[in-house]
Task: structure prediction
Amino acid sequence: MKVLLSQDDLPRVWFNISPYLPEPLPPPLDPVTREPVSPVKLLDIFPDPIVEQEVSQEEWIPIPEEVLQVYALWRPSPLVRAVNLERALDTPAQIYYKYEGVSPPGSHKPNTAVAQAYYNKISGVKRLTTETGAGQWGSSLAFATQFFGLECEVYMVRASYNQKPYRRILMELWGAKVYPSPSDNTKAGRTFLERDPEHPGSLGIAISEAIERALEDKSTKYSLGSVLNHVLLHQTIIGLEAKRQMEILGIYPDYIVGCVGGGSNFAGLAFPFLKDKITGDKPDTEFWAVEPTACPTLTKGEYRYDYGDTVGLTPLIKMYTLGADFVPPPIHAGGLRYHGDAPLLCAFYHHRYIKACAYDQKEVFSAGVLFARTEGIVPAPESAHAVKKAIDLALECKEKKEKKIILFNLSGHGYFDLSAYDSYLKGVLA
Amino acid sequence: MKVLLSQDDLPRVWFNISPYLPEPLPPPLDPVTREPVSPVKLLDIFPDPIVEQEVSQEEWIPIPEEVLQVYALWRPSPLVRAVNLERALDTPAQIYYKYEGVSPPGSHKPNTAVAQAYYNKISGVKRLTTETGAGQWGSSLAFATQFFGLECEVYMVRASYNQKPYRRILMELWGAKVYPSPSDNTKAGRTFLERDPEHPGSLGIAISEAIERALEDKSTKYSLGSVLNHVLLHQTIIGLEAKRQMEILGIYPDYIVGCVGGGSNFAGLAFPFLKDKITGDKPDTEFWAVEPTACPTLTKGEYRYDYGDTVGLTPLIKMYTLGADFVPPPIHAGGLRYHGDAPLLCAFYHHRYIKACAYDQKEVFSAGVLFARTEGIVPAPESAHAVKKAIDLALECKEKKEKKIILFNLSGHGYFDLSAYDSYLKGVLA
Result:
């Protein structure tokens, strides 16, 4: 069962949760002086309107008409009741998922990529740079920039560039220039190439390259796909739509579930509902952030100041972290391998508004296969973490005979991750 | 701009165009006696309700509730106005596409796969067999059978099995057993393997294997993804939805465009509109069937009796054909490489209700890239043929300053065909 909104119901504002923080976010610190960093410093790599949104205390921020027009290519996204999955689990619970895989790049990422491309365009920027691992974020930014006539330059971790050509092709098809990182376009890249001409790269190096390129040219800016406040803001369109869809059904979720890498898809679904918990309207809703045991940022990390990147170029930010030098094992949910988490998400977790749990790769793929065989859609390995938690909650409801309502974010499809499913089916998954 | 129907608007009947034929379809003939084949013979490989639909003269055939429930996972599919493409072409024409790539297997094929799986299930069948080339049809049948607890056995052309693992994995993920063909499961397969243990296979051999398996076991039946009347019938849900969506907009198409391999996606969109041309309500609508120059069945074939398969197992059917032994070059639009076409489509083409044109692979990919860069969606190479014709019609309208309305079927996405786009972008496409 599916709830579709008409395009007239597309939300016209994003929801900014900052005014509802129990205390102001600890400010980013200069790594040398340990003094708070002025937002002005951010203007080196981000345009004005993005920096404004990063620090805004306005609850509602209008979505520009030009952004809405591109959103309309796939939004509003469907809210679906997973009737077949419920039946397979024989649970009295109702399971709903918000499906973000309907976007052309196949995930929630374009919700922010389109907004960022637009704000850069109106700020006179000509070119955006970014990094990408497996290509989920890079393909979303390539997709977005083409609508606004911006150049897009993507630094793709060389190991992925060589092993996973499909997303690289997708980026090129959407007009982006994709470089295997380390590349010889940047000082940072050349340093690593000198040590090893076949260097496999890392997300940290790719970030350094993308930022270096943005710093050396006034008309070039940098774009980030998660973690920062403005990214989470843009993703709230997910939760705003879901809320409206549940209102149409006359229901409200008891559990809200999302996987967490940097935190943007989780926050996008959760924050519009979290407001109701904070204000006391819906005090009992449970929010579950799901991560891999291979990168257990919330469940095992420390809440402290740390670098956002691996090489130490960014300001220090207060977040749950496994340490900027933490290198998670190469799991298939590449999007969940970040050592830290979004500061906004971390603040609410710290104040116990949000719970967290972690799963092993095998149980996650097992949940993904069950979902594919009941609901028909193959979840991205990242999103399968949320599927797994939704299943566990539904089974708990079965045990307790409770008719609870579970809502999770199916943040993307897994049609570019089929070789991982193949390994799982063949029993050779690490 | 997108027109979405609510699930309450999902059509409850399929449209059967047979009563509107200018003359009855020439009957299938026994290849030896040249006598008409009784429909009863079809019961060896198809269940009762399918054979009934194959020969039905009822205009409206109810869609079973169980089929509607599975359709609801992705249907009604969106009708989209390609505003960005119109702008890029600077045309006064309006271009609309019906997007069938929203189904989990990514094409229109599950519209019939789900119906066929259901009818086999209620007829006591335990297992369905089929053949597949690149895997588009096989993955749709795998997807469909899992909802009805049927086993699914797919014979996949060995060359594709080895070179294109993604759709093979998708079929296995949805619970199917996939065998590279020729296999040692069948007499036909073993014959070819004896000659060459590494035989690359062909669709003709794979059909023989799938049919042989269906003939040797009462509880096993065979399933075909195009060409036959009942397949085209099930696909009419596309056109019925599109008609309703255009009614909401208060418009009616001047041109209706679809690519043609066996003819099912074209017929699915076109037939509900074609009725209006036949009855004289809309005499001026133009219907365009688009094929590759590499396999120009309608544009260069002869209208005569021929075998449906390559090895000559099927009855002789009257259709446009390039000859059962015609081997088209290996183009990327694998779904358009059939030597014949659906008898229903051929009859209407013969009586000049439908026009046909053919394009080269390169111009088709060029259209696909333009579409991806304006509308965001990467078309399947098959569907890109329809995109190309829609673009050409829009440019004609520009020249003639005509505000015509163009509707085409975007029958599937190209996310499993990115290596073909890569070849095109690199300029190495054959």
